[in-house]
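Bench log, entry 3. Co-assembly request; chain sequences pasted below exactly as received.
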Amino acid sequence: MLAFDVFGTSVDWWTGITCQVTGIAAARGIDVDAAALAGAWRDRYLPSMARVRTGERPWTPLDTLHRESLDDVLDELGLADRFAEAVREQLVRCWYRLPAWDDVAGGLDRLRGRYLVVALSNGGFALLTHLAKHAGLRFDAVLSAELARTYKPDPAVYRTAAGLLGVEPARMLLVACHGWDITGAANAGLRTAFLERPGEKGPDHTADRAVDTSADLVVRGVGELAAALGC
Amino acid sequence: MLAFDVFGTSVDWWTGITCQVTGIAAARGIDVDAAALAGAWRDRYLPSMARVRTGERPWTPLDTLHRESLDDVLDELGLADRFAEAVREQLVRCWYRLPAWDDVAGGLDRLRGRYLVVALSNGGFALLTHLAKHAGLRFDAVLSAELARTYKPDPAVYRTAAGLLGVEPARMLLVACHGWDITGAANAGLRTAFLERPGEKGPDHTADRAVDTSADLVVRGVGELAAALGC
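Structure output for the full assembly:
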């Protein structure tokens, strides 16, 4: 059984957010560095979830965290008065529509011929369901950290997924492009595959690298993963 | 957004269970009326879930209820000593592999072109995921009563599904072939479509009829539903 991370691993959030911010801002005559906004917004992703994961704050859905982080970023960039409430809501919904990397749809179909393949992401259940459909990605099921009411890399997220699917954690392979996700899955007893996405954070930031992780397997695309697994 | 019931509505449990019981019994030289066993087993389905729903017993997964009901049925039919532990486990797993009705796969694909379409069943999450894959049914997501830790027709099941999908219950249409499911969904605020499956319980039992329900819509197949919804 394979569990795919989504943001970065399956879909190109950086291009998706940058392009949508560009379009939304242009339509309203707002001058903004969309790539900078996308990067600063995503920089707040892990810290915002960590506050839930560590118990500093109660369970909070990712859409709410995205909105709070966006508000912070707009304050920081001095853009707060340019982005009205409705535009902010529209921007939060951009995370529901992100393009898949070219290798994913076909690779998933190959893998699904032999394995059960699910999504397992910190995105909310609604977000992931819409995102997979919009990006044309066929998973056998969508699983969200929301079902465990905490966030990866908390072991509860991986174990809740395995429990719902009726398998031992050691029978699941987590596929992800982030070292922290690989480590979290390994701590929960899963097998791991690091999928390299050097462009995940755009041209000006460095993505996580395979050499910094201890995954069971390292691949450069879903097609390569399918081949490695005999599909 | 459309939520499809599964057993009876999307898949033909009666044929699937009867055929698998026949095969498993024949392979072991056990003489059994497979249709009678299938019917008696399913007769225990609603009462077994009602004990969880009413709080008479704590949350219990459907696989466990299926197993307990099977044990009771084999006792009642005087077959207890013919069915060893391993065979009973195999029989419980038969519910993971049931054939779809002919109209479902194509009808779902039509509906998915315009709507988000999910499964919403009393089957466990693992069962439903395997069942949909095996039957070749493409849902946008699988949702199980297990996520609410109770069973339909408890309103919590329908509302948990709507909550996870981020929509008001009134924006969901439940499609089901059972009057109790239609009533439960309506009580939770959903719209409802009764899908007639006159053969759902096999040739010797009467299936639920549209005239006994108060669904918003009555159809005789998923294709007819797709046409009614403009797909």
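Chain A touches chain B through 22 residues (CB under 8 Å). Chain A has two domains: 2-12+98-228, 13-96.
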